[in-house]
Amino acid sequence: MNVMTSPASAKVHPLDIILVEDDDADAKAVRRALEKSRIANPVRRLKDGVDALAFLRGEAPTKPPPQYIILLDLNMPRMNGIEFLEALRNDPKLHRAIVFVLTTSSDQRDIGNAYDHNVAGYILKDDAGFDFIKLVGTLDHFWHVVELPEIPAGGGR
Q: What is the dihedral of CA 39, 87, 47, 36, to 10 degrees?
């Protein structure tokens, strides 16, 4: 069983995956790809940016993990992905969070806006394939070679 960890946290805690995705089918596809790749990292799914920010700020019943990556859809209700990124980057405790955008939007404005908000990568769901195997492999390799910052528990202002 493969578990992604950052080098600094390898002995402490596996890297958690925060999936911010409103589409049930896409969320299932990500989980299925993780299982197929034998990646057993904890996955926490939140259906929009409002819920994700509340969770990351420690305002939800479950507290956020000390280290995580965020897989973020752009087209969501209540707070879309770009609005979420803006709030995240303006939060003094959460601004260092590692975010990969995972979306169907190939609009150059969305791509530019995402990178303007310091995303680690912009991945088209179509390019990643239906079962997201390419995405999972990329993330698995990425986390074996990078050092991650710890995000203070219950970020927020």
A: -10
pLDDT in tens, 45-73: 999 999 999 999 999 999 999 889 999 99
pLDDT of residue 3: 53
pTM of the model: 0.82
CA 118 – CA 146 distance, rounded (Å)? 16
**Cα(132)–Cα(157) distance, rounded to whole angstroms?**
35
CB neighbour list of residue 130: distance below 8 Å, 6 or more residues apart? 29
Strands (DSSP E) along the chain, which ranges? 16-20, 43-46, 68-72, 98-103, 121-124
Question: Strands of 68-72's sheet, edge to edge?
Answer: 43-46, 16-20, 68-72, 98-103, 121-124
More confident residue, 106 or 32: 106
CB 42 within 8 A of CB 18: no
16 beta partners: 68
Q: Is residue 72 classed as helix, strand or coil in its secondary structure?
A: strand
What percentage of residues in the chain have a pLDDT greater than 90? 48
Nearest to 50 by CA among 24, 77, 72, 30: 77
**Helix ranges (DSSP H) in 91-132:** 108-116, 125-128
